[in-house]
Design brief:
Layout: H1 3-30, H2 46-71, H3 74-79, H4 84-115, H5 117-122, H6 125-151, H7 161-169, H8 183-198, H9 213-216
Helix pairs in contact: 1-8, 2-4, 4-6, 6-8
The structure holds protoporphyrin IX containing FE.
Residues 62, 65-66, 69-70, 91, 95-96, 99, 102, 134, 137-138, 141-142, 144-145, 157, 161, 165, 188-189, 192-193, 195-196 line the site of protoporphyrin IX containing FE.
């Protein structure tokens, strides 16, 4: 294992995680009025609606897939009767399907941001980079899953990436699990960590302000009229 491996799979991810945490605290304390998704709906509505809907419908199951795929050891899924083959097929077909939905959404959102003049004018460099980087991450994630299943059908990310990821979480990061992983997966993981580090300084902070209380709230809030 080289110094580069140690940097990429031990130092870099921890740097990104630390930047993510400290960056959010800093942004929250210094820029609460700038904590926004910076909507551009008033400039263009149709593409935003389709792109945003597809992206968000896709990314939620994709995130759930990441949590299970990276967080749950093979032995546990086997113990509940899910064979490795069944899991792999599910990851390819179900993961692949939602990956395509996410990609389509991100493609529409990115082309909208770059090609519609008024939207582009209102975009900061950070907005443009976030869109382009997300598109790249989703594309290379899809390519890793679909491409690798053709070129290296025996490769199972749960024997390498997932073990490395868990080693990272328990502060015993072991770069050897990542050094032999296909390049597309390596690029996917590095760019995933890169966006994690950039997150607090971009419009992505809006994710933490999703108004979940809307789900259970009544449509109209009635107040009793108190006549004194
Ligand atoms: C930061 C650490 C990340 C790691 C370690 C990681 C790891 C992986 C792995 C192992 C796969 C293959 C999953 C499979 O075959 O089912 C994958 C696929 C994928 N990833 Fe990531 N990923 C990361 C971040 C991200 C981010 C930030 C995004 C999106 C913004 C993303 C989007 C996708 C997509 C769309 C796929 C293909 C569809 C799927 O199977 O879920 N990933 N990723």
């Amino acid at each position: 294992m080289t110094m580069v491996d140690q940097f990429l799979w031990v130092i870099f991810p921890y740097l990104c995680i630390a930047t993510f945490i400290v960056g959010h605290v800093f942004r929250y304390r210094t820029d609460q009025f700038g904590w926004t998704a910076k909507s551009s709906e008033f400039l263009e509505k149709k593409q935003l609606m389709i792109g945003s809907l597809l992206f968000h419908i896709g990314i939620i199951p994709v995130i759930a897939g990441h949590v299970v795929g990276l967080g749950v050891p093979k032995e546990w899924t086997r113990a509940v009767g899910i064979s490795d083959h069944l899991y792999h097929m599910g990851a390819i077909w179900v993961g692949g399907f939602f990956g395509v939905v996410t990609f389509l959404g991100m493609f529409i959102l990115t082309s909208r941001r770059f090609t519609i003049k008024s939207v582009r004018k209102l975009s900061s460099t950070s907005d443009l980079i976030v869109n382009a980087l997300l598109l790249f991450i989703v594309f290379i994630g899809m390519y890793s899953v679909i491409g690798t299943s053709v070129t290296q059908p025996d490769f199972d990310y749960r024997d390498s990436i997932s073990i490395w990821f868990r080693s990272l979480l328990i502060f015993r990061a072991d770069a050897s699990f990542m050094s032999q992983v296909p390049l597309a997966f390596q690029l996917h993981v590095i760019s995933g960590f890169l966006i994690t580090a950039m997150w607090p300084f971009t419009r992505l902070v809006h994710v933490w302000s999703v108004p979940l209380n809307y789900v259970g709230r009544s449509y109209i809030i009635y107040r009793k009229h108190r006549s004194e």
